[in-house]
Amino acid sequence: MTASLLAGAATLGAAGVAHPAPAAAPARRPGRPHGRPDTPTVVLIHGAFADASSWSGVVERLQRHGHRVLAPALPLRGLASDAAYIRSVLDSVTGPIVLVGHSYGGAVISQAAVDAPQVRALVYIAAFVPEVGESALQLTGKFPGSTLGQATVTQYYPLAGGGQGEELVIEKDLFRKQFAAGVPVRTAQVMAAGQRPITLAALKEPATAAAWKKIPSWYLVATEDRNIPPAAERWMAERARAHTVSVRAPHAVSVSDPGPVTDLILRASRSVRSGH
């Protein structure tokens, strides 16, 4: 349930009668961080088969550290269009940004952050870090170990100009083992029910830009990842010269282990604040 829904529910009494909402807080200037003036805004980009709620544990921790946090919903329709949408989010933020991507979201932030001067750090969480011309699907197959192909099914959706497009979802019975091993069963079941499909075209679309070549980066390797082989994650992190940590966790590491994920983001934030 999103924060907005929770907030709405909180205004209802036990009998379902609406109570007066508290007085609105004074309006803040758009994009202004809540903490110190030099505290970066953290923008969290989810990947395929997930949604923004997958960052909930990380968001809570970052907010306790005084960070303003944005976690927009990613369309998952195509790399160029997804990156353009996230760029519009970045352009709405005042001040420095730490931009974080999980899984396919890593490819998106690598493209969206190009020539975005407010983005001072990139953080990849079990994510793709493509070179120009590389696709997520290509990088998945670069090293053995991914079982995603056996766990997904294809769905079809209508295209605006006619015809059908293909999108992938993880079979619900396989979701926890494939994506969220170690996450409590009930939590994984909720995640499986609400998973966001990604188009096959998005996974095949090659990157046209690579912001990690100019922006400092951090990388978290999930050593129990079944979507992206951990060997591929290490290889991409090394190629990007990222500050790298490893966590024994599944692909959904932001859900299973939000503490280490938050710690890495805070490291990147401290680096931005210190000017390094």
Automatic annotation (TrEMBL):
Sample GO molecular function, one term: hydrolase activity
Signal peptide: 1-20
Signal in keyword set: yes
InterPro entries recorded: AB_hydrolase_1, AB_hydrolase_fold, Sec-Metab_Biosynth_Hydrolase
Matches recorded under Pfam families: Abhydrolase_6 (PF12697)
Record-annotated AB hydrolase-1 domain positions: 42-261
Keywords tagged on the record: Hydrolase, Signal
Domain of life the protein comes from: Bacteria
Stored PANTHER family: AB HYDROLASE-1 DOMAIN-CONTAINING PROTEIN-RELATED, ESTERASE_LIPASE_THIOESTERASE DOMAIN-CONTAINING PROTEIN
Protein name: Alpha/beta hydrolase
Organism: Streptomyces dangxiongensis
